[in-house]
Amino acid sequence: MLFRSRGPVRGRGRGRPAEAPRRGRSPPWSPAWICCWALAGCQAAWAGDLPSASSRPLPPCQEKDYHFEYTECDSSGSRWRVAIPNSAVDCSGLPDPVRGKECTFSCASGEYLEMKNQVCSKCGEGTYSLGSGIKFDEWDELPAGFSNIATFMDTVVGPSDSRPDGCNNSSWIPRGNYIESNRDDCTVSLIYAVHLKKSGYVFFEYQYVDNNIFFEFFIQNDQCQEMDTTTDKWVKLTDNGEWGSHSVMLKSGTNILYWRTTGILMGSKAVKPVLVKNITIEGVAYTSECFPCKPGTFSNKPGSFNCQVCPRNTYSEKGAKECIRCKEDSQFSEEGSSECTERPPCTTKDYFQIHTPCDEEGKTQIMYKWIEPKICREDLTDAIRLPPSGEKKDCPPCNPGFYNNGSSSCHPCPPGTFSDGTKDCRPCPAGTEPALGFEYKWWNVLPGNMKTSCFNVGNSKCDGMNGWEVAGDHIQSGAGGSDNDYLILNLHIPGFKPPTSMTGAMGSELGRITFVFETLCSADCVLYFMVDINRKSTNVVESWGGTKEKQAYTHIIFKNATFTFTWAFQRTNQGQDNRRFINDMVKIYSITATNAVDGVASSCRACALGSEQSGSSCVPCPPGHYIEKETNQCKECPPDTYLSIHQVYGKEACIPCGPGSKSNQDHSVCYSDCFFYHEKENQSLHYDFSNLSSVGSLMNGPSFTSKGTKYFHFFNISLCGHEGKKMALCTNNITDFTVKEIVAGSDDYTNLVGAFVCQSTIIPSESKGFRAALSSQSIILADTFLGVTVETTLQNINIKEDMFPVPPSQIPDVHFFYKSSTTTTSCINGRSTAVKMRCNPTKSGAGVISVPSKCPAGTCDGCTFYFLWESAEACPLCTEHDFHEIEGACKRGFQETLYVWNEPKWCIKGISLPEKKLATCETVDFWLKVGAGVGAFTAVLLVALTCYFWKKNQKLEYKYSKLVMTTNSKECELPAADSCAIMEGEDNEEEVVYSNKQSLLGKLKSLATKEKEDHFESVQLKTSRSPNI
């Protein structure tokens, strides 16, 4: 048979069998045997050359012209060994197929399967083998078989590769001993496909310290279906500087391995990438060759399953049997080096100074030392010499709580005593107790509960070095071995407890740790402050990048547990062979921890005494009680005050609650009971927010990162009630994926925060292709209630008028004010929150919560958050001023009075509308009739009187005329009197005689009968001639 190959025949990877069609257990002349030859013929046809009688004769195949591979296993578990020509080889006469080893066969560690004879042979010197496994520990470049796929799961407009900040440049990056993930918010998968002949496993080491990156490892089959959807998909977080391990069982067949990372960048801080190394896959059934040792390692024994690292000042090339020494006088090399490097001249960056412990004379010496291992040369022309050591200086005093007993070291004061560090320890006076804690401000030696170390992710140069060095009035970062070393300082405290007098207090802080520091950097240095609780996991509390002026930072402790506080300093995150930033450093001047369990005392504080006798020992006060100065007895705080968490001596320790708030029974916290009262224009407004006491939620957004990742800000608000308990909870559910060993109800569940107001960042499920929405970056916005008022300012928290729309009514808004005790580098006074409660009858139930339009994230400066909560439940309670009455018509002797609410209605609940009233009444028709009758009678009477007086006037005129005529006729008959004078003896008087006047009824009667009576008066005059009348 003739074969000519012009292209490579691809296998599944180094050290694994090639896959070929199945064949059965049959003799060479069986159909299966013929199929094997047919396969070879097909391969030749694919190469472009079919056997032809006219082709020229080809030379016979030599062993170097072909290699052996196994066919695919059949259902019975058997296979054949076939010869496959190498690429670009033309030859004839390949060996016939022969029966192969069973499919589950594998060699032991340190051996490989020699395909020609199908026997296991030991690996030679300079090589190694895992037997039925493969290992990837060289990451100078991406090994064969691995691939990178970068995707963006959520885009704003158009595909991600069409945007200038797309994910085309995102990938896993080989870094020599490990491979590093992307640092952006792209989704990047490191993929490797392997075909297992039997069940096995995959094992790898990793560093995963930043939960702003989602790291998952999962396996798919050749149908792109996940093999197992267990929680093992999410990789657990590791501590800083520690390598974790992860292993997953593999099934026989094709397994596609995925290491996938997705960055969640919501702030300005850069994320720390995931690091992976030493990937081992077991279950490939056989290894057809041994792997050569990588440069910097060697194997000097046959049958090795690994290679050893070359020691310092030696090197080796690939496949070395031994390491070669460098010229130590002029060259050097680190562990695992592939070459030697020339030693540079010494500079000021190659040494550092330390202070020796105090001697018996109370002196310390300044010593200069070369950075170990020393790699520089002093004999070169421009090299510097080590400065002279031995300069003596006075030792600093002991730290507070310690004393010097005449020796060269400081010792802690015995229990019940105190010292400021310069004097001997003295017992606390009666009625006082030691104020336990630690105050380190003099750094002659490292305190006993502190330790320092150094580590590097990519090498072991600084292992065993001191990461920090004491320097008298401060402690500073050490030299390290590389600029990207992590220089570690640890402080271990077994627990915290409050003073004896405050033992019964609940919910208050147990202690606090404060440190003063500064950083001096010329590059991208970072100082991390981390906390480990009960030796479970280390979490970064705060970090500072670049040069920072001298400042203080405080971290508050709220529960009693074992704490390890860690300060980690890194000059730069880029590894380099030469030292450029050795002068970059951090200095810590003082570290103070209060209420430490095993602490010492620098002073004493007052405590409560038992009531039996004045000299009795200190006793704990009940919750909410302070120590009365005169008697040193416990006394309860007045109502609506809370007890200070820092001191309980004197009545001033009871701090009044804010406006509209009250204290709980233990006087440990102030809160709102959901009721608020306000006087406005002689009107009392009563509010009841009880129906809003359950947690209110707001999800605003969406917002987008620079690469378009969609995310939302989710807020929970616990407004009032619940005896001051913080009911708003925010979680980081990424820990549901990354942390598997969480005990339900554990106090160490640090991924759940409770507060009055808290915030989480939500990445929707469709944003990154996850099955559920992810919640991360949960922070406390408010853990202390300040007060409730209609004023817009309280304790330096101000709500500007233009921050929210103008209210539609004259009902005043009610403002709830909160603050957080946690400080950050951006918010040195902590965060604060203001919630504006607005009456809106159209928003029933829980209503609607919104944020200012100018600050869509709820805050404009990152420190003060504002919310507007509109609801009908925020309206005042109804009073008698909120309704009016309407009187109905009088019907059938009855009248109704109704009561209706004023429109629009700006109140709820409160008093109810009064019941309608029904009263008797006179109808309008009756009074109309009476009025008409009276009016008619009056009109008739007026007409009658008018006629009467007119008739009377006519008669008077007639009689007067007649009288005048009569008088004139008498004067003509008699002569006129000569004189009218009164004679002597006559009286000057006249007699008047009146006629009888008729009554009105008589006049009417006369008028009716038309009588001609003369009703005029007659006047008789007396004269001298008249008879005596």
Quickly describe the structure:
This protein is mainly β and 1029 residues long. 8% of the residues lie in helices and 35% in strands. It is built from 5 helices and 70 strands.
**Main sheet: strands, sense, barrel:** 7 strands, antiparallel
CATH topology of one domain: Jelly Rolls
Summed over residues and divided by their number, the pLDDT gives a mean of 79
Cα-atom radius of gyration: 54 Å
Overall 3D shape: elongated
How many strands appear in the DSSP assignment? Answer: 70
Instruction: Name the structural class.
Output: mainly beta
Low-confidence parts: 1-54, 155-164, 735-749, 990-995, 1011-1029
Work out the strand percent: 25-35%
- What CATH architecture label of one domain applies? Sandwich
Query: Helical content, roughly?
Result: under 10%
Subcellular location: Cell membrane
GO cellular component, one term: plasma membrane
Family: Belongs to the ELAPOR family.
Keywords: Cell membrane, Disulfide bond, Glycoprotein, Membrane, Signal, Transmembrane, Transmembrane helix
